[in-house]
Write a structure and sequence with these properties.
Elements: H1 17-28, E1 32-37, E2 42-51, H2 55-67, E3 79-82, E4 88-95, H3 103-109, E5 110-114, E6 121-125, H4 131-134, H5 137-147, E7 148-151, E8 155-158, H6 165-179, E9 183-187, E10 194-199, H7 203-210
Antiparallel strand pairs: 1-2, 2-4, 3-4, 5-6, 7-8, 8-10, 9-10
Helix pairs in contact: 1-5
Length: about 230
């Protein structure tokens, strides 16, 4: 059966919390967005990918987004890319449909800068001012599964390298005030890059907050299971 294609301009919004907490949590991690503005396609879409060792999580994420009607039901196929270290990496990618009603998310998460000397335009992901509203327990769980590291006998680190110090402090203040977590900020060793650390004493609180939203294969990021 052929289903007529719905153009992005006719896809409706705003979108409910079920999809927003998934995409906001993912954008805090490694997910990205693309914006289209041409006669054939206008609007924005999300790109998700995960390397093969965490493929079960990516397939689960795809199933959640597909169930909500935001991407094709076809299972993501494994792809190959060459890493900066020269090694071959295997990963699962997929994209959502394009929605003009996703543009507000794109516009609030990305900032453009034009170099005055070279005129080269660069794009940087930023933290929007409204982030606290969508930083739900499920969004935090998605963020952890996507881009956090468990530190044995120490706690957990959110990989916030791409954000400025002020943006990391903003995230810290939200997590501390909204969920009573204790966090610290440390330099990563790279200039102007910072990691956001959940203190060991706050891990029980964090686990209660997010465990029910975590995929079983990702519980190792909370120190609850060894990675398979």
């Amino acid at each position: 059966m052929n289903i007529p294609r719905i153009t992005s301009i006719k896809r409706i919004g705003p979108h409910n919390i079920d999809i927003l907490e998934i995409i906001i949590g993912s954008l805090l991690g490694d997910a990205s967005m693309e914006k289209h503005n041409n006669k054939d396609e206008t609007g924005s879409r999300f790109d998700f990918s995960c390397e093969k060792p965490n493929g079960e999580y990516l397939l689960w994420l795809h199933a959640e987004i597909s169930k909500l009607g935001y991407c094709k039901p076809n299972l993501p196929q494994i792809s190959i890319r060459k890493a900066q270290d020269g090694n071959i990496r295997y990963y699962f990618p997929f994209r959502t449909f394009t929605f003009t009603s996703f543009d507000w998310i794109y516009n609030s998460f990305y900032k453009y800068h034009t170099d005055p000397h070279t005129q080269i335009i660069t794009r940087r992901k930023i933290i929007p001012s409204y982030i606290a509203e969508y930083l739900t327990p499920k969004a935090i769980a998605i963020w952890i599964m996507d881009n956090a590291t468990y530190l044995k006998n120490k706690g957990m680190r959110f990989c916030t390298n791409c954000f400025t110090l002020e943006e990391v402090k903003f995230l810290q203040s939200i997590l501390e005030s909204k969920y009573k977590l204790s966090l610290t900020i440390h330099k990563t060793g790279v200039v102007n890059q910072y990691g956001l650390y959940v203190a060991k004493r706050s891990m029980p609180t964090l686990i209660i907050l997010v465990k029910s939203y975590m995929h079983p294969t990702m519980l190792y990021k909370l120190g609850l299971a060894e990675k398979l």
